[in-house]
Design a protein that fits this description.
Layout lengths: L4 H20 L13 H11 L4 E5 L5 H7 L4 E6 L2 H13 L4 E5 L12 E7 L7 H14 E11 L9 E3 L5 E3 L8 E2 L4 H7 L3 E8 L5 E7 L1
Parallel strand pairs: 1-2, 1-4, 2-3, 4-5
Antiparallel strand pairs: 5-10, 6-7, 7-8, 9-10
Length: 219
Amino acid sequence: MSTTQQDIDKIYEGNLKFWDEAWKRVTKPHKELPKLPYIHEITRKLKKYQVKKVLDLGCGSGWLSIFMSKYGFDITGVDIAGPAIELGKTWAQEDNANVTLVADDLLNLSFADSSFDAIVCNSVLEHFRSDQAKVLFDKIHKMLVDKGFFFGCFDAVGTGKGEYFELPDSTHVYTDLMRQGMMLRNYTDQELKELFSNFDILSFDKNSYGSRLVWARKK
């Protein structure tokens, strides 16, 4: 049976609902930062590039935004899950962190063109279909200033346990109780590089977990 556009739209709405419901179960900010060596590389390189304004896409409860704010960056974090944003605001207030956190769908952002010197996207793209990824990267390109910077961590996913069905582009839509509605798609190296057609790729590396760490600059 073919999947209609209306079906696909409903599936995406289910994905957004999954994140909202998942974050509702979290009652207080978890302030222990993940042990990811590359987060220090982010601040170091952006300081080197004299970046000021940064957009954190899919910020969750804001850990990366709050971490970066302590290095003097002007940070805006965006996530679809309202409960996550509220947790982040509580965290920022408790830690006296100067960040702006906004609940919004990444595909419908209304920031003006050339609003940010840099954009970071940490383990987020995997939850979008391939056609949506193209839309998102077009928005990223427009929101960056001329020669603006992008950092992304793109995880290797799609082989774990769980019940799911596949969309035509191989996006997994989970049906098991723990992840019901969540979309997950594995992007190949070539697919990622194609998304950066309007960027100069400065580096494209893999860490020990198979995640691709990409630095790029707007053409």
